[in-house]
Amino acid sequence: MKTGYCRILPCVVFAGVMSLTISCSNALASNDSKPMPALFSQLEAFHGHVCAGSIFGARIGLAAKEALKRAGGTGKFVAQYYDLSCPVDGVQVGAGTTYGNAALAVEDRDEHRLVLTAEGNKRKVEARLTKKAEELGLKSRDLGKKAKALPAGSPERVQFEREIEEIFSWLKTAPDEEVVVVTLLNNPKGTR
Ligand SMILES: [Zn+2]
């Protein structure tokens, strides 16, 4: 019995390691850094409300972080964002670059643009919103204003709220390339 068990066990362990290896290589092969739902619950608790800005900030932050890792960025990652508004909190959650750990600076220039720098080798990526994501973000804000002007529970308000939810859900789940444009700023030739 004992021998049989010992003979089987290595196969099980091996299969486990293999499947782990496969899922790791899939994750590395993919350019898509679509965030997990847990990240958005964390973001909502941190930011205090749900809004397009904080969601797309998280998408921008996460996509930039993953791109900078793929480009071989070393050392601490430091963020510079160019608008003082809701996306800043998303960037802190998505990229993990917080104001408190001196990894975030904000310049209020009315531009939804993030520059993430790896302090070790000074590699940099820039992340912006796609036109579609920017337009949907603005649309959700307008719909929110319209909804607030209507009595709670009225059919028109419910309809607006449903449209807003759809936009949030798209911003959370659409593939990276539909939401974020990431550019490597100063990387040596031949690296991504
Ligand atoms: Zn907000």
The CATH topology of the largest domain comes to 60s Ribosomal Protein L30, Chain: A
Unreliable parts: 1-30
Q: Largest sheet at a glance?
A: 5 strands, mixed
Which cofactor or ligand species appear? zinc ion
CATH architecture of the largest domain: 2-Layer Sandwich
Task: Identify the overall geometry.
Answer: elongated
Total strand segments: 5
User: What would CATH call the class of the largest domain?
Assistant: Alpha Beta
* Structural domain tally: 2
Strand content: 5-15%
Radius of gyration over C-alpha positions, nearest whole angstrom: 21 Å
Into which percent range does the helicity of residues fall? 55-70%
What is the arithmetic mean of pLDDT? 86
Q: Describe the strand arrangement of the main beta sheet, using strand numbers.
A: 2-1-3-4-5
Order of helices and strands: HHHEHEEEHHHE
Please count the helical segments.
7
In whole angstroms, the N-to-C terminal distance is: 53 Å
Structural classification: alpha+beta
